[in-house]
């Protein structure tokens, strides 16, 4: 093996750059060359490919976003695009590929593997919704961004005796909401994985207010409903002077946390080790602080384990 290709795909996530740097850095340390593919699978098909020089990696571990750019490219589901992608890889003499992204990106990686092309997937998404890894690259940074925003919202909520419903990302998963909510002592965390009732939340707010608690913050996962819709439904149970806020794409930007940088670095170097051992078709993860790899196919047959006990914990310790 002489050349390793790297691409980032789907929604960007802070720490993707650290992963790209680790893959390229480890490849160079092993005497290999690293090639960057811009705009994910779209760039792969188009042949938007370039050699990565060591100096290109200066200062990237610090930065959010992805230096390789990203794209959602559902067209890669068609075999024609997959074969074209492999043709481009061969044209550049690239022997194996590391794909950094979420669920959709893993589908692309699996297709390449099925065509006999060695590919390793790294979990890069703020959503944390990938099976066989405790954490995905970008999740920790997104949660910390939310915590900063929620702390600020808390200040104004407290000054005005208000209730705020704050919608956070996560696609269909509640991880971002659960971690953000526990971190700020939310009155309630509403996620798709746990049954909840608007009436019970309204009663809790009434109880809190009657007991001198001036503000109430509800952290809502986007997979349940939008903040404004939630506020409207909540208002049917009483006047809480409620406001809806959406943190939205702010969660995807910013300098990655140390945890994301270190995790991405470990995973990136590990991906190269696997490829050097002649392995492909694998998804890298981290479980109980150990690097692990699983067949990419297994990921589609398993469900991501959401730490739903965080909701119970929050209910217990935020009881007012
Ligand atoms: O998968 C990452 C994510 O940020 C989700 O949390 C969110 O639902 C989605 O991407 C937003 O996608 P887009 O940036 O394409 O609007």
TrEMBL record:
Keywords: Allosteric enzyme, ATP-binding, Cytoplasm, Glycolysis, Kinase, Magnesium, Metal-binding, Nucleotide-binding, Transferase. Pathway: Carbohydrate degradation; glycolysis; D-glyceraldehyde 3-phosphate and glycerone phosphate from D-glucose: step 3/4. Its main location: cytoplasm. GO terms for molecular function: 6-phosphofructokinase activity; AMP binding; ATP binding; fructose-6-phosphate binding; identical protein binding; metal ion binding; monosaccharide binding. Mg(2+) binds at residue 103. Residues 3-275 form the Phosphofructokinase domain. ATP binds at residues 11, 72-73, 102-105. Substrate binds at residues 125-127, 162, 169-171, 222, 243, 249-252. Pfam families: PFK (PF00365). GO terms for cellular component: 6-phosphofructokinase complex. The keyword Transferase applies. The keyword ATP-binding applies. Its cofactor is Mg(2+). Allosterically activated by ADP and other diphosphonucleosides, and allosterically inhibited by phosphoenolpyruvate. GO terms for biological process: canonical glycolysis; fructose 1,6-bisphosphate metabolic process; fructose 6-phosphate metabolic process. Belongs to the phosphofructokinase type A (PFKA) family. ATP-dependent PFK group I subfamily. Prokaryotic clade 'B1' sub-subfamily. Catalyzes the phosphorylation of D-fructose 6-phosphate to fructose 1,6-bisphosphate by ATP, the first committing step of glycolysis. This is ATP-dependent 6-phosphofructokinase. The gene is pfkA.
